[in-house]
Amino acid sequence: MNGAAMFKMTLSMAIFGSIGFFTVKTGIPAVELVFVRCICATLFLGFCWFITGQHKVEVWKKREVIQTLICGIFLVLNWVFLFKAFEEMSITVAISIYNLAPIFVLILGSLFLKEKMTLTSLLAIIVCFLGSIFIIGIQNFTSLTDFMSSGFVWALLSALCYALTMLLGKGINGLSAYAMTFVQTAIGILILCPFMNFDVFHGLNSSNWLYILGTGLIHTGFVYYLFFDSLRKLSTVVISALVFVDPVVAILLDTIILDFRPSFLQSIGILFIFGGIIYTLVQPNINRKIEV
For 145-178, what is each residue's pLDDT tens digit? Predict the structure, then answer.
């Protein structure tokens, strides 16, 4: 096992787990914050791409470039929707719903990629669905107005866009991780620029700017460097396990620092969601071992 790669992956997930805490402290809306993230990531990862010399050996195929651009659109939408969810609901609830992405991958894979869905996979989906109802509160499903203002839709859309990013990214093998991310974040700058309200940056204090730059440089540039540097050196099983460091850190910060206290039903919902996701990730590996 590559210990250095495991440490980098764990550190990247732990840092990313604090993004919700940083987001609520920036003092700017979701679109403007994602715009800053895209600028920081493009500059930071573009610099890493250049100094490593990887830009000289890239193989640019038309299909993969188009696929990367579409991935970039969903990646940016994923960030915008997640940050909007943070504006409407607690970080714990938003992160729990956001981590439904693997379930969406399973559903979309069975619908469009003709991947077989087992009875146990269907059961995991039902458990996660029940968990999402418990976590958002059954009362918010009785009124369309309450439901729309709960932030649930934003969190769900972020999970769906993240799932689409993962599915589309599966077929990109020729481009390096640096090239992929550089293209994706650069397209994010172009997409978001017409929607920017630069007035929101006026009147911000030094603390706000510290959190804004931290979100851009640390949570985007540095984290993505650690993530991509370790990604190809670890097995899928290890990556699947370490990814859960992210929501654990997010929930701990939300409960310890921001004083969020989930209700009994919300706690059950969180357990349902993560139980269903863990089972979905672990089950294929169990079946593989049995077949061997």
Answer: 666 667 888 998 999 998 888 788 767 778 887 8
To the question of pTM greater than 0.70 for the whole model, the response is yes
Residues in the chain: 292
Q: How far apart are CA 254 and CA 93, in angstroms?
A: 10
E strands within the chain?
A: none
The CA distance from 55 to 32, in Å, is 29
Q: Could you write out the DSSP letters of every residue in 118-175?
A: -HHHHHHHHHHHHHHHHHH-GGGGS-HHHHHHTSHHHHHHHHHHHHHHHHHHTT--SS
Instruction: Select from 97, 68, 65 the least CA-distant residue to 81.
Output: 97
The C-alpha torsion from 173 through 97 and 275 to 3, rounded to 10°, is 40
Two tokens at 226?
């650690």
List Cα–Cα distances, 204 to 26, 38, 75, 198, in angstroms: 9, 20, 27, 12
